[in-house]
Design brief:
Layout (H helix, E strand, L loop, with lengths): L5 H16 L7 H7 L4 H13 L3 E4 L5 E4 L8 H7 L14 H23 L3 H21 L1
Antiparallel strand pairs: 1-2
Amino acid sequence: MPLLSRKGVLAIAAVIDVALHTQGRPISAKTLAARHGLPPRHLESVLQALVRDGILKGIRGPRGGYELARERQRVTADDILRAAGTVDDVAEQPVASELLSKVVLPALSAAEQEFGIALGRINLEDMARSAEKLKSRAMGSAVRA
């Protein structure tokens, strides 16, 4: 049972991709979408949400695209998921069932809080470093082949 939505996972992947590939130039939504096998319009709404929350910066124009708006170490997986709209901050709805309101919802709420804390410990810098190591290994394997 996946705990993260596909949209949330794609948002994290897109931000890592931007962190790895901008090199002083913004990366286009079209390029990001192609790398992840998506139609550009599917990813665009996620990217815009990340811009609104200050994780990415959108650059307009023919050479425009997206770049990081903050340092890599200041962005967490939790930040990305919240910005992409994949984490609900909805107050508890009143429920008629005492079992739901006093047992199930408090237990799940505690688990969600712990999951959010764990996601807050995963920062973009760590994920980008892991991706860079993976890329280095892949390049090393290609050279040996």
